[in-house]
Structures are given as structure tokens and as C-alpha cells.
Automatic annotation (TrEMBL):
<dbReference type="GO" id="GO:0106310">
    <property type="term" value="F:protein serine kinase activity"/>
</dbReference>
<protein>
    <recommendedName>
        <fullName>non-specific serine/threonine protein kinase</fullName>
        <ecNumber>2.7.11.1</ecNumber>
    </recommendedName>
</protein>
<dbReference type="GO" id="GO:0016020">
    <property type="term" value="C:membrane"/>
</dbReference>
<dbReference type="Pfam" id="PF14380">
    <property type="entry name" value="WAK_assoc"/>
</dbReference>
<feature type="domain" description="Wall-associated receptor kinase galacturonan-binding">
    <location>
        <begin position="74"/>
        <end position="138"/>
    </location>
</feature>
<dbReference type="GO" id="GO:0004674">
    <property type="term" value="F:protein serine/threonine kinase activity"/>
</dbReference>
<dbReference type="Pfam" id="PF13947">
    <property type="entry name" value="GUB_WAK_bind"/>
</dbReference>
<dbReference type="InterPro" id="IPR025287">
    <property type="entry name" value="WAK_GUB"/>
</dbReference>
<keyword id="KW-0812">Transmembrane</keyword>
<keyword id="KW-0418">Kinase</keyword>
<keyword id="KW-0808">Transferase</keyword>
<feature type="domain" description="Wall-associated receptor kinase C-terminal">
    <location>
        <begin position="192"/>
        <end position="294"/>
    </location>
</feature>
<dbReference type="InterPro" id="IPR032872">
    <property type="entry name" value="WAK_assoc_C"/>
</dbReference>
<feature type="transmembrane region" description="Helical">
    <location>
        <begin position="41"/>
        <end position="61"/>
    </location>
</feature>
<dbReference type="GO" id="GO:0030247">
    <property type="term" value="F:polysaccharide binding"/>
</dbReference>
<keyword id="KW-0472">Membrane</keyword>
<keyword id="KW-0325">Glycoprotein</keyword>
Length: 305
């Protein structure tokens, strides 16, 4: 009904207006003229806005169609718990596998980002894209020197490599008291209470052992321990522990984690990014993929296959 009226008015506007040529300009005809003029302006306005909107919409739609969905998705920043603005090789949560590498799936719960490496769980404290390094802490050693399972974890060597600033800390658990009188200060002790019973434990790193004078009795003390766990810590933290072996410093050293360097086809990713693409993965070929505006390629946006 409305539509029909508009069309009719639109046609009437182009016709000579009978009232004007009768010489007597009644107030009715003036009013009619004014209404018609307004209608004309309004319709012109509507038509113009419609035209502009059509042009804009068309532009948006064509630009969307030109950019590959993988390219768009992998180019947007990804947040995971405490970690902001993550990119390749990390994925998980809102980011699909094709934007990452299978070994670098993150779990993002609350304020904690974790990663599983060789079936063991680590908190991810920091990610540095520019030097491909992350800082990790064993989840079971977070704010805890006495985990229930006393095992050394390894990160393997395929995708991760301990940073040059990592040092091994040896934690000796459930040690029996030595038969001889033990110097109070070395090796440094820490406590664990298991089922209400206090265990006697020690912590040492290699340079602490090398600096120790009474190394024969030390090896006797440490040899009487039921378990040993090797935990990597930062070199800076190890230096603090060597000069000041308090339990507080031990806890701080464990909580500050250790650095690892990642290898996830890093050089391919650099090439891909330099060619304007976003790094990712092709689950079908199980290989690296470079996502570009016009589609995905094995290494760079120019490789054309
Ligand atoms: C996010 O990361 C990208 C590339 O990694 C960088 O260019 C950008 O500046 C970062 N933004 C923020 C807010 O850190
Ligand atoms: C990341 O690594 C680069 C190069 O080693 C360094 O200059 C930069 O400070 C690091 N960024 C953070 C946040 O640690
Ligand atoms: C560490 O653990 C203690 C007790 O187990 C707790 O009181 C403290 O809040 C924890 N600190 C952090 C930072 O989680
Ligand atoms: C360990 O526990 C014992 C008994 O509760 C206490 O005397 C000792 O000071 C504790 N040692 C440390 C390093 O906390
Ligand atoms: C602690 O007690 C629980 C249950 O009583 C038992 O299953 C566990 O083996 C005990 N742990 C140790 C280290 O003795
Ligand atoms: C040793 O570390 C403790 C914290 O655990 C600190 O309070 C103390 O001042 C440090 N001592 C020295 C000599 O640095
Ligand atoms: C990417 O890295 C994986 C694992 O390190 C390796 O097996 C694969 O050959 C690499 N892909 C390419 C195209 O180099």
C-alpha cells in the first residue's frame, strides 16, 4: 500500500500541475506544492542513501570474498588466559589447528595458560615471538616444592630446546639422616610433609656441588635419598640460590620457571610472513602451510602451487 502510493507520487511529480495554471493560487494549491516538493526531496534522499549503501555493501562483500578464510582467521590476534596477542605456532581455545602447529596446543583456563609437552603439563608464563622462546613451569611445581609424583620431566628435542640460560637443579627427596654429624648449611634442606610425616630433602645444582669442599660426605648424604628430580631453572635464579640457599629462594626459583626455544618450522614461517602470509598448518598433508589472501601454499605466498 505504502509502496504503491510512493510510486504514484513519483509519477505525479513529473506531470504539469493543474492548480498552478489557473492563475488563482489558493492556499490549498500552495500546500499541495510544498508537500510535493518535500516528497521529491525525501525520495531523492532515500534513493541516494540506497545507492551509497549498495556501493558500500558491494565493496565489503567483494573484499571478503577475495581474502581466504584461513588468512583472515590466522591473522587476527589470539588471547589465551594470561597470554595476549599470540600467533603461530600457538593455537587452541578460539584458534583452530590450521593457524598453529599440532605440538603447540594451549589450554586456556581462567588466568592460566598451559601446554602439554611429552604428556606432561606446564604453565606458560611468557611467550616471546621475536626470539621463539617461552617460559615454562611444571604445573606440579607451581607454588609447591613437594609434588605427589617425584619424576623428572623431559621436553624432548623435536620441538623444544632448553635455553642457554637454563640450569639443572637437583631435588633430593626422602633422605635418611646421615650417620655422621652433618654441617647445618650444606647441602641446603627443604621440608615436605607427606601424610603428616616430615621428609628430609635437599636441593643442589652442579656449581653448588663443585664449590662444596666436603664432596665425599655430600655424595654420601645425597646417595641416601630415595628420589631425585631434576628441574630446570633460570641461570639468574641458580646464581641467587648458590649464594643464598634459603627455602624462599628455592620456591622463587621454581616459580620463575625456565626458558625453552621452540622449533615449529621457524624458518619456513619467517619466509611465509615475509611474503605477506600467516603461518599455519595443513591437517591433510600434516605439513606447514602458508595462508595467503588468495589461498594456502606450502611455504610462501609466491610459491603458486
Ligand atoms: C601483536 O602482535 C603483532 C605481530 O606479532 C604486532 O605487530 C602487534 O604490534 C602486537 N600488538 C600488541 C598490542 O602487542
Ligand atoms: C623478546 O626477545 C627479544 C630478543 O631477544 C628481546 O629484545 C625482547 O626484550 C624480548 N621481549 C620480552 C617481552 O621479553
Ligand atoms: C601458595 O600456596 C600457599 C599454601 O599452599 C597459599 O597460601 C598461597 O596463596 C599460594 N600462593 C600462590 C601465589 O598461589
Ligand atoms: C623442617 O621441619 C622441621 C620440623 O618441623 C623444622 O624444625 C625445620 O626448621 C624445617 N626446616 C626447614 C628448612 O623448613
Ligand atoms: C599417603 O597416604 C595415602 C592414604 O593413606 C596412601 O595411599 C599413600 O601411599 C601415602 N603416601 C606416602 C608417600 O606414603
Ligand atoms: C637471602 O634471601 C632472603 C630471601 O629468601 C633475603 O631475605 C635475604 O636478605 C637474602 N640474604 C642475602 C645475604 O642476600
Ligand atoms: C616441519 O617440521 C616438521 C617437524 O620438525 C618436519 O617433520 C617437517 O618436515 C617440516 N616441514 C617442512 C616443509 O620442512
Amino acid at each position: 500500500m505504502h509502496f504503491k502510493t510512493h510510486v504514484n507520487l513519483n509519477c505525479n511529480l513529473n506531470l504539469p500541475l493543474p492548480f498552478i495554471y489557473y492563475g488563482v493560487k489558493s492556499s490549498v494549491s500552495l500546500l499541495y506544492q510544498a508537500i510535493l516538493l518535500r516528497m521529491q526531496l525525501l525520495l531523492q534522499g532515500i534513493f541516494f542513501s540506497f545507492l551509497v549503501m549498495t556501493i558500500i555493501l558491494n565493496q565489503i562483500l567483494t573484499s571478503c570474498a577475495a581474502d581466504d578464510v584461513h588468512y583472515l582467521k590466522c591473522g587476527s590476534p589470539f588471547h589465551c588466559a594470561n597470554l595476549k596477542n599470540l600467533s603461530y605456532p600457538f593455537w587452541g581455545f578460539s584458534r583452530p589447528l590450521y593457524c598453529g602447529h599440532p605440538a603447540f596446543k594451549l589450554q586456556c583456563t581462567g588466568e592460566v595458560a598451559t601446554v602439554t609437552i611429552m604428556s606432561e603439563n606446564y604453565r606458560v608464563l611468557e611467550v616471546n615471538d621475536s626470539d621463539h622462546r617461552i617460559k615454562l613451569v611444571r604445573t606440579d611445581y607451581w607454588n609447591n616444592t613437594c609434588p605427589t609424583s617425584l619424576r623428572t620431566f623431559t621436553i624432548g628435542c623435536t620441538f623444544f630446546d632448553y635455553g642457554s640460560d637454563s640450569r639443572n637443579l637437583n631435588l633430593y627427596y626422602d633422605c635418611s639422616s646421615p650417620s655422621f654429624l652433618q654441617p647445618d648449611s650444606f647441602p641446603p634442606k627443604f621440608n615436605c610433609s607427606v601424610n603428616g610425616t616430615q621428609m628430609n630433602n635437599y636441593f643442589v645444582d652442579e656449581s653448588m656441588l663443585a664449590n662444596a669442599e666436603t664432596s665425599v660426605s655430600i655424595s654420601e648424604i645425597l646417595g641416601a635419598c630415595k628420589s631425585r628430580v631434576v628441574v630446570p631453572i633460570l641461570e639468574s635464579e641458580a646464581e641467587v640460590l648458590e649464594t643464598n640457599s634459603t627455602v624462599e629462594n628455592l620456591k622463587a626459583a621454581l616459580e620463575n620457571g625456565f626458558g625453552v626455544e621452540w622449533e615449529a618450522n621457524n624458518s619456513l614461517c619467517d619466509e611465509c610472513q615475509n611474503s605477506g602470509g600467516h603461518c599455519g598448518y595443513d591437517p591433510i598433508s600434516s605439513e606447514f602451510a602458508c595462508h595467503c589472501r588468495g589461498g594456502s601454499f606450502p611455504s610462501t605466498c609466491k610459491s603458486g602451487e
